[in-house]
Amino acid sequence: MISTAKKEKMQKVFKMADIPFPRGVRDLMPNEALFRNEVLKKIESVYQMYGFLSIDTPTFESTKVLKSNNTIGEEAKLIYEMKDDDVALRYDFTVSLARYMAMHQELPLPFKRYCIGKSWRRDEPQYLRYREFTQADVDIVGGRPAAADAEILGTSAVALDAIGMNCIYKISSRKILNEFLASRKIKQEQYVPIMRIIDKFDKIGRDGVVSQLGDLGLDRDNISAIDELINLKGTNEEKLDYVGKMISDKSSIAEITETLELLKLYNFKGAMEIDFSIVRGIAYYTGVVFEIKASGGEIKSSVGGGGRYDNMVGVFSGKQVPAVGISLGIDRILDIMGISSSLKSSYADVFIITVNDSNYKYALKMANLFRREGIATEINLATRNISNQLSYANSMKFRYAMIIGNEEEKTGKVKLRDLLSGEETLLLVDEAIDAIKGQSKQ
After folding, report:
1. Which of 12, 100, 291, 414 has the smallest CB count inside 10 Å?
2. What DSSP assignment string belongs to 38-92?
């Protein structure tokens, strides 16, 4: 027997109007989940086409790994710690990959890896920013820098083309920025504070950057020079020519020039722009850095980024191993693409309607036959009339309804209704299969 007090407590729970729900996460409706899965399938297909391999790492890492030097740096405050076990939910896939490569040094280099899955950050939730989010990463450990850099950004751009995203690809170089600051006789201990300010350009604007550079104690000439660099206009060649006249070590110029030349061969749609305001993660990026921004719509937000992190694997392996990677922010991409307004709610193309319960076995036989032919098929599982079954089929956006009653079962035929045109045809089973397959190829 359940006590009266326990019954009252249960009733309070089930009558609650506002069920607690964590901040910074979300549920997906069936149409949204389907849309998301289709996008991920297309991205993964491109990654595989370009020869990237899949590995799997745990959803949590040791806090010592995540808080190591040259990993996520000051962003360590955003990790979700499980302090009793000295572990934390993964912040991104890059640190896990660096740890993985250090533990599996038998792998041949260059090693091309892709990973699609969730990460977590204790960030302040806001529009287009979640605490639990999906990333789609590609990385190359080892290899020739310019070729690997181009392969990473080129593959990502082709993947974004595949899902119909319009983007602008921005590229910069931490080496060039370091060389530029050195040419201005700026003290090395000020490099990181300067980069942190430049990295906030999108948030605080040009005036904000100039003001905060002044707060660092930089003189007017250096502030003006940095301001001019990060707001350079012109072609990529003109920008490189401008900075090339100011720095002594031209190797970083040659490297980014080669990368840009190689990227032309990947034939993606978006423009490639050099932008020296792109800095990204202060703690671990060492060379070329990337930023991908949505274009062509109302939202111009960043949807991906990455760069070269030549020191991170060495944190765990004790020897420097070159590496480069990029991450696509899937949740932000989905929001920009309009995931909530997606229409399709079922993977199935065909919904089988049964006129009578007695027709169910024959209908099930037909459903499994169609499935074996590679046609995704759903069958009515509820007790409802034909009208309600058709209403369900239309609400779920099936392409076809297949109506099966006594006559169809007796003759071994099916009645196929095209839910787009409303056309209905009595067909032999093989004819119905051919009709559906033929339509799917168009």
Report:
1. 12
2. HHHHHHHHHHHHTTPEE----SEEEHHHHTSTTTTGGGGGGS-EEGGGTEEE-S-
